[in-house]
Design brief:
Layout: E1 6-8, E2 12-18, H1 26-30, E3 32-39, E4 42-43, E5 47-49, E6 54-56, E7 59-62, H2 63-72, H3 74-79, H4 86-92, E8 106-110, E9 114-119, E10 130-132, E11 136-141, H5 142-162, H6 169-182, H7 184-195, H8 205-213, H9 215-218, H10 220-228, H11 239-249, E12 251-254, H12 272-286, H13 296-303, H14 308-311, E13 320-324, E14 329-333, H15 339-355, E15 362-365, H16 371-384, H17 387-394, H18 400-410, H19 414-423
Parallel strand pairs: 1-11
Antiparallel strand pairs: 2-3, 3-4, 3-7, 5-6, 5-10, 8-9, 9-11, 12-14, 13-14, 13-15
Length: 435
């Protein structure tokens, strides 16, 4: 996805112009109208109506159906990171709302800190006069997303009350969500449940109990990351298991040797990619590297560990992480026997230490798409393969062979180079399909 086409932090607004519906359930008739979703002057709901041959920004839909879908999926929309599954799509794609309406082709994705909303055009269908046209991606702070959804649901409930329609399913669902949001324990439970990819009361009680029980040993942020990196029917690693792995196959790192950046990097940019990359550039500048290659010895020194941490060719366990032993030291567990992969994973741990101010015991290094994991990957990618210098070396030749050459020079995998080119909009996202 080309970042230049992403609108950052514009205000989200859901608008509805009431219309008359002659038949249907009372809640449908009371809340039928032309609904539009916009960010500034960009409409994610823009569509062509061939029946009247005009472009609409607002489409005739059910205000009740939209509110009920948002209320039911509240926790998952807020806390579940991107996943490749039918269950995830059902909870995050507006096109799945149903109810006999043709809904906008909009996907809502959260990383815990921000919500990305992506609208894509729909294909023309002979039997369907409505075709959505919007092709744009917007990003907003998760708290702002919460506020607008809450405002919209309250607006629909007030309209229902005004029309004398009470005791609806929406009213019951939202009352439960509101009550749970006010209670810290219930809210934490629902957050973990959603991060696991489950609807309310559908996650494994055993898994949830185990996660909640590890908060003291692993930290709340670490537990949340474990949930986001797992799924509802999987057993998450216990603190005892992680301690055993750290003791048996972990490599000691000196947390005190990792420099802390005095500049508040979280303010350097609105996205995790900008925050992570800016932090990496500051570290490279502090170390006098500029565009030079970050050799194994230098990376090991930065992490306060020995060269063997990077050169050991023995495969490790599936789960990779760093676990703090005390205030000064930690053990890092790496899973790949390949040097470039080990370099990237260790750089992620270093980045997490620099950017994460919680100082919790656990630093998970996962494949998930939470804000924290995005920060790690962005930091590691820029630390090991500074984009501007890689771009100069590529010299407008973006072939696989040239990408492989640049990756070899910077001692990273070709995936790192390809991902950077895609994220900067130089190559299409389809360029990653072979990976």
């Amino acid at each position: 996805m080309n970042r230049s086409f992403i609108i950052e932090f514009d205000r989200m607004v859901i608008e509805i112009d009431w219309e008359r519906l002659e038949q249907g359930p009372p809640e449908e008739r009371a809340t039928f109208g032309a609904i539009g979703i916009r960010f500034g002057n960009r409409w994610l709901s823009e569509a062509h109506d061939s029946f009247v041959n005009r472009v609409r920004q607002k489409v005739h839909l059910s205000g009740y159906q939209l509110a009920q879908w948002l209320a039911w999926n509240w926790w998952r929309l807020r806390w579940e990171p991107s996943r490749e599954s039918l269950e995830w799509r059902m909870a995050h794609h507006l096109s799945n709302i149903g109810g006999g309406y043709v809904w906008p082709n909009i996907t809502c994705t959260s990383d815990g800190e921000r919500v990305l909303m992506r609208a894509l055009p729909t294909q023309p269908r002979p039997a369907e006069p409505l075709r959505y046209l919007a092709d744009t991606t917007v990003v907003l702070p998760a708290l702002e997303f919460e506020a607008e959804i809450e405002r919209y649901i309250g607006f629909i409930l007030e309209k229902l009350r005004t029309e004398g329609v009470n005791g609806t399913n929406l009213e019951n669902i939202w009352a439960h969500v509101t009550e749970e949001r006010r209670d810290s324990e219930s809210s934490w439970y629902r957050r973990l449940e959603a991060a696991l990819g489950c609807d309310p009361d559908e996650a494994s009680e055993q898994v949830l109990t185990a996660l909640i029980g590890e908060e003291k040993e692993l930290g709340r942020s670490g537990v949340a990351e474990l949930a986001a990196g797992s799924s509802g029917d999987q057993t998450v690693p216990s603190s005892n298991h992680l301690k055993e792995l750290a003791a048996s196959v972990g490599y000691e790192i000196n947390l005190g040797s990792i420099p802390l950046i005095t500049t508040n990097c979280v303010q350097c940019g609105p996205s995790p990619w900008e925050v992570g990359e800016n932090a990496a550039r500051l570290i490279r500048k502090q170390m006098g590297l500029n565009g030079g290659v970050f050799r194994d010895k230098k990376l090991a020194e930065l992490a306060g560990t020995g060269l063997k941490t990077l050169t050991d060719s023995q495969p490790g366990p599936v789960f990779q992480f760093a676990l703090r032993a005390n205030e000064a030291t930690a053990k890092v567990v790496l899973k790949s026997p390949i040097n470039t992969n080990r370099r990237f994973a260790l750089a992620r741990v270093v980045g997490d230490r620099i950017l994460n101010t919680t100082l919790e015991p656990l630093i998970p290094v996962l494949r998930s798409y939470s804000y924290r994991q995005k920060l790690q990957r962005a930091f590691a990618g820029e630390l090991l393969c500074p984009f501007e210098h890689a771009l100069q070396m590529l010299n407008d030749d973006f072939s696989d062979e040239n990408q492989e050459y640049v990756a070899h020079e910077f001692q990273v995998s070709q995936m790192v180079v390809s991902t950077k080119l895609v994220n900067e909009g130089i190559l299409p996202r389809q360029a990653l399909s072979d990976f």
